Amino acid sequence: MNKHGTFFCLSLALLLICSFGNADSRTIHVGEGQKYVTLAAALSKVKDRDLEIIVHGTVNERSTISIVDRRVLLRGSGSAKIQLSNMHFRQCDITLGDGENLLQMTGSIDARNSSIHSMDGITLQSETVALSLQECTVDFQGGEYYGKTTGVALTECDARIESGRFEGDTALFVDKSYVSEIAGGEFISSGTQAIFLSRTHVGEISGGHIVKHGDKKMVSRAALYIDHETVIDLITAGDFIAESGSGMLLIRGAHLGKITGGTFQSLSE
Based on the number of CB atoms within 10 Å of its own CB, is 18 exposed (0-12), middle (13-18) or buried (19 or more)? Predict the structure, then answer.
């Protein structure tokens, strides 16, 4: 990791301590054996802006959860589960996971005009798009996102990816965004492309395991698909592997500044 990445991680750790380790934040417990059985019940009663929500056991949410203008840390207690349909964040500062305790979620999360911090411990699985973010500041320090169509979708975002696991027909979809660095993570496609970039600027790809699975006769896509005037300044490392198609493909005015490292492999016949 370079000095900027080290500073970023230290800053994030300090931010989490400052945000949720002070007297202004309130901790609420949700789930089995707790005062609040669901998130909806807790949020309707607790009006504090800064919240640490700890989930116990299995929680079944029957209604859509909408959170506006709050700072929230959402984590499990040991190992917990939430079954939901949709969760919406607007103008929020959200931390998903705490790097230690497990919280498995089913359903979809979308956020707009928010700051999103993803840590180890959070797992989100969806039949469509697991995590959809628009006009957000995003950092991934971990977390696992499994979507049938898309694992994570970023639109008009400012993002950095240190680690995490992303899976879907498209594992990571990025449009009209700035990604300062993809330093690591696993991006696993079930067929189309592992990472799709459109109208996006990427500063550096310095790591990551980027794999496109699928029928070897389907060769029109790639593990890293760079489209529509996207600019990548530098690739220094990473594994770009396609069972069908190419390890990397640039089309429609996309530009790649320099490659100094990385492994690019196509397994197509």
Answer: exposed
In angstroms, rounded to a whole number, what is the distance separating the alpha carbons of residues 254 and 231?
6
What single letter denotes the amino acid at residue 199? R
Contacts for 87 with CB less than 8 Å, ≥ 6 apart: 64, 65, 66, 67, 107, 108, 109, 110
**Rounded CA gap, 37 and 29, in Å?**
9
Could you write out the DSSP letters of every residue in 160-226?
EEEEEEEEEEEEEEEES-EEEEE---EEEEEEEEEEEEES-EEEEEEEEEEEE-S-TT--S-EEEEE
- 245 within 8 A of 220, measured Cβ to Cβ: yes
Measured CA to CA, the distance from residue 150 to residue 137 in angstroms comes to 19
Q: What is the pLDDT of residue 217?
A: 55
The whole-angstrom separation of Cα 129 and Cα 110 is 9
Asked if 108 and 87 touch (Cβ cutoff 8 Å), the reply is yes
Q: Using CA atoms, how far apart are residues 161 and 179, in angstroms rounded to an integer?
A: 8
Cα(141)–Cα(68) distance, integer angstroms: 24
46-49 — which CB contacts under 8 Å span 24+ positions?
none
pLDDT of residue 80: 97
Residues of the chain under the 70 pLDDT cut = 1-24, 215-220, 268-269
Residue at 258: amino acid letter: K
Half-sphere exposure of 230 (CA within 13 A, CB side): 26
